[in-house]
Write a structure and sequence with these properties.
It holds the Pfam family CTP_transf_3. The chain is an alpha/beta fold and 231 residues long. The chain folds into 2 domains: 193 residues, Alpha-Beta Complex (Spore Coat Polysaccharide Biosynthesis Protein SpsA, Chain A); 34 residues, no CATH class. Helix content is 30%, strand content 21%. The chain is built from 6 helices and 11 strands. Strands 1, 4, 5, 6, 9, 10 and 11 form a 7-stranded mixed β-sheet that branches. Strands 2-3 form a two-stranded antiparallel sheet. 32% of the residues are buried.
């Protein structure tokens, strides 16, 4: 039985050119995901799924494997995380390797630690979840979220019944931190999705997560990383 980490890293990034290998405080951002996965000692293999020879070379330099280049079908803007996972698992199956557990780690997730990965694997096993992933709490109650009802800017509430509710009385809500998914491959392939009706979450501090979709996000991520880890 084999345990693997899968790091998706497509070459074609439009908003941030070469996003997955862009320098992040001294080294390619993908290196953080690769090195943390290796240092956790949870995986027999850490592989990068990419359509780019350049990314493949950088991945190998930092200790990952790239046993094949991603298919053209799974390299466009519409390919999902599940599509990438499925392709990798099918490749392993075709090469007579049975995957016991796996973790899909995003290439732009420098905040991940070995301890967090270990906690996720423990949670997956102990609680018999299909998938476990980190989340952060919304800073403002979503029950009092505001919407714009016309071009002039007229507002309304999504849930008007909570207009006068105290924030501390409202149920906390969380969002996917966009870092990794620890999962049981057989179940994910059967259900054809990463989130299932039996998924578990681990709450992390908002300082330890940052979506990186544009240059401003990138700068915020570097600042957060320095605050969190002192580098």
């Amino acid at each position: 039985m084999t345990k693997i980490a899968i790091i998706p890293a497509r070459g074609g990034s439009k908003r941030i050119p070469k996003k997955n290998i862009k320098d992040f405080l001294g080294k390619p951002i993908i290196a953080y995901s690769i090195e943390t996965a290796i240092q956790s000692n949870l995986f027999d293999e850490v592989i990068v799924s990419t359509d780019s020879e350049e990314i493949a070379e950088i991945a190998k330099k930092h200790g990952a494997k790239t046993p094949f280049l991603r298919s053209e079908k799974n390299s466009d803007d519409f390919a999902t995380t599940f599509d990438v996972i499925q392709e990798v698992l099918e490749w392993y199956s075709a090469n007579d390797k049975n995957i016991e557990t796996a973790c899909c780690i995003y290439a732009t997730a420098p905040f991940i630690t070995s301890d967090l990965l270990k906690l996720a694997e423990q949670n997956l096993t102990t609680n018999q979840f299909d998938t476990v992933f980190p989340v952060t709490r919304f800073g403002f109650p979503i029950q009092r979220a505001i919407k714009k009802t016309n071009d002039a800017g007229k507002m309304d509430l999504f849930q008007p019944e909570h207009l006068n509710s105290r924030s501390q009385d409202l149920e906390p809500a969380f969002q996917d931190a966009g870092q990794f998914y620890f999962f049981k491959p057989d179940i994910i392939l059967e259900k054809k999705k990463v989130w299932t009706d039996n998924s578990g979450i681990i709450e992390i501090d908002e300082l330890l997560a940052q979506d990186i979709d544009n240059e401003t996000d990138w700068k915020l991520a570097e600042l957060k990383y320095q605050l969190a880890f002192g580098n």
